[in-house]
Hints:
Elements: H1 7-17, H2 26-32, E1 38-40, H3 42-45, E2 52-63, E3 69-81, E4 85-99, E5 106-120, E6 139-141, H4 143-153, H5 189-199
Antiparallel strand pairs: 1-6, 2-3, 3-4, 4-5
Amino acid sequence: xxxxxxxxxxxxxxxxxxxxxxxxxxxxxxxxxxxxxxxxxxxxxxxxxxxxxxxxxxxxxxxxxxxxxxxxxxxxxxxxxxxxxxxxxxxxxxxxxxxxxxxxxxxxxxxxxxxxxxxxxxxxxxxxxxxxxxxxxxxxxxxxxxxxxxxxxxxxxxxxxxxxxxxxxxxxxxxxxxxxxxxxxxxxxxxxxxxxxxxx
Length: 200
Ligand SMILES: [Zn+2]
Ligand SMILES: [Zn+2]
C-alpha cells in the first residue's frame, strides 16, 4: 500500500485508528474509553420483549480512545428488548477539533451519527461484531461503536468553513483573517518559494 500526499492522507491516518475487524481488539478499545457511554441495561434485559427505554446524553467532554475526543455530545438513544438482545435506535451529535486542510487552523467539526443496531444478549463466544454485544454483567458500552461511527463521519477534506480562503501561497498569511497585497492566483505552494526568491 502506498501513501499519497494530499487529500487521501488524512483519511488513511484516521482509518488506521479504527479497529481492524479481523482481530478482536474490542478489549483495547474498551479499556481506553470514557465510561460515560457505558450503560447499566440489566433492567431492560430482565424486561419482556417489546419493553423499551430511552437514554439521554449530555456530555461536555468525552474521550473515546486515546486519540479521539468529542465535545458537547448530545443525543437520545432508545433501547428495545428483543428476543436477540437490545435494539438501539437514536442519534448522537458532537464536535471534534480538526485542522483545516486549507488554512491549517484548528476548528470544531460537527459530527452526527445515526444508530440502528442490535446489541446481542447473551453475548455469544465469538460475536460477529464485538462492539455489538451486551456484557454478561448487564452493561452495554456505546463508546466503541460511537467512536467508530464518528471517525467515519470525519470529512476527507476537513474544512473550517465551506468558503475558507486558505493561506496566501506567497506570504503564508491566513486569508480568512487578513487581506495581504498578493494577488489571488492559483499557484502551487511549492513553486511560490521559488517565486519569492526570484522577486527578492
Ligand atoms: Zn480553513
Ligand atoms: Zn500574501
